[in-house]
Amino acid sequence: MMMNEDQVNDMIQRWRNTPEDKLKPEDYQQFKNLGSACLTQGDSARLLKFLHDEKNQGIVKSMGCVLIAPLVNEVVQKEKSLDHCQAAITHLTKTCRPDELLHSLLALVEDIDPGTISETILALVPHLQTVLLQLDDRKAESVGLVLAALQKQLTRLPVPYTHRQAEADEHGLCRCCNALAAFTKPFVEEVKRKNGSYVATSENEELRIELLKFCMRSLRDPLLEAELNRNRKSSLWLFATEIMATLPAIQESLSELLFFSPLKKSPQMDDSQSKESRACLAYLLFVQLITIDSFPAVFSPVFVLQCNMEYINQLLSIKKESHLLKGLALYSKSLESVQDNSLPVSLQELKSFYSVPQNLRQLLTDCPMQHLRESGLQVLQLFINKLDLEAKHKFFRCMLKTSNHAGVESYIVKNIRSQVEFSMEPGNANKWFLGKEFLSLLGLVFCLPQGAETDLLNNMDRIMESLNLLRYLVIRDKELRSNTAVWEELCRIKDEYLKMLRVCISISRGYHSAELKALREDQKLKAREARDAARSTRLVKSITVKHEKVSNMSPEVQNQVLQSALVTFDLMESLIVRIEEIAEEKLKILN
């Protein structure tokens, strides 16, 4: 019901004369309606004047909180009365009771319209800070509630991935992150001041924990998703540096957090989320080198790698480009400082030293993004280079048994040959790539996955690399013949492998030759039918098309594929013949 000015004045006078505990819910609603009406009518100046009037301070203190929502809404909508509304909110934050204001502001945060998330947060953050700084009781808990509520809303915004997207900041996430960093500064300073004394209160420790939770949540979202590059310092890069600076400022040791004392589970963050946060922390520290100057230099490269493998595994197990890039970069950087041929086989007993290569293998075989596969292959080679001989031997065995991918297996076989070449150099002889232990590895290399029924084309890379290794071993037989038992077993493995491979080639060639013959006959038949059809088109007025199932490939492509397969079989067989010729020549020389 609309009221005239006299009625409004009478109501205001009644409120002035009514003790706060006598005010009724309808009084609060009427006061909110009056304030909202002023804003709707564009009369925000009058509302501001009312709020500043000395005679109305009792009313403002008692019921002013109900005006927060309409005033903030006006600010978010960016109406002409923006300055008046901001001034009104500021006055309310200084006049109303902080606990009541906090309740009203939190309600606004939790009920943000999805279309105005960043605008609302940017409008609220300065006032939330003012209110929290006025609190005496339960300040730490309240700071935690506000930060959690704000970050929950920010997770609804898309994270800008490229530098250009971050610069545009279309959805306002970057501006909000900067606002949050500014918001926490006085509370960080409060923790720093109190930690300067010898006695830290429980309230102060609680505030420190809430700030730590804020930092860890920020590392996970948005920083884990963002592209961060020290050469292109975006807004999110600056936010990352603020977070990394905040952790030591609140007496949180980065080495403790990463290596010794994982963040305890909390209602805001489960264990996997905590691990993701620490993975991002490790990335920022060791790859982007943020605050690395203050990080203790006492940890050995192998220890750092061992600790980081947990985080690398976490990053590589999440199939998102942002996570994979960070995981590969952290893996590479952690390996760089490790001495070549130094990682012992005992490390492979650790779960992460098994899981990381398996995740890397999956990336190499399944990832559709070429730049990630190329980076993954470089990191795989770097890892292999760091293993000692026994560890290399065990790793190659594991990959040959578990990869189930000809390309990966081919790469491993190529590495095995490199190790054999190294082992044949003076002073490098060892049992892992020349002696008895080498035979168990060769048994895995010189075998066909499905015996005579193996698909040679799908396994072509592995088979060709295996034949190249076998040819090399036969040529360099002198180093291997020194151990009669090893050489005899190698010859037995070679003979069985080549025999089975010949059978497989024969079966595959027969099948593909038959397919090629059938294809050519089919093409001749279709060509004859086409000629017959052309002659009869003048005699018929309509043609009924018969739907037939055809191959996904055109006959021309099918012909090319089949011809290529036959050439591949010829190439394999020529290699087999050459290997046998070399073996016979060597035998004649010995005899």
Provide an overview of this structure.
There is one protein chain. This protein is an all-alpha fold. It is 71% helix and 0% strand. The protein is built from 26 helices and no strands. α8 packs antiparallel against α9, α16 packs antiparallel against α17 and α25 packs antiparallel against α26. The longest helix is centred in the last third of the chain and has 53 residues. The protein is elongated and about 125 Å long. About 4% of the residues have low confidence.
Low-confidence stretches: 263-268, 535-551
Helices and strands, in N-to-C order? HHHHHHHHHHHHHHHHHHHHHHHHHH
Largest sheet: none
Distance between the termini: 118 Å
**Average pLDDT taken over every residue:** 88
Apparent shape: elongated
- Tell me which oligomeric state these chains represent: single chain
Structural class: mainly alpha
Q: Give the helix proportion (percent range).
A: over 70%
- The count of β-strands is 0
Strand content: under 5%
Number of helices: 26
Alpha carbon gyration radius: 37 Å
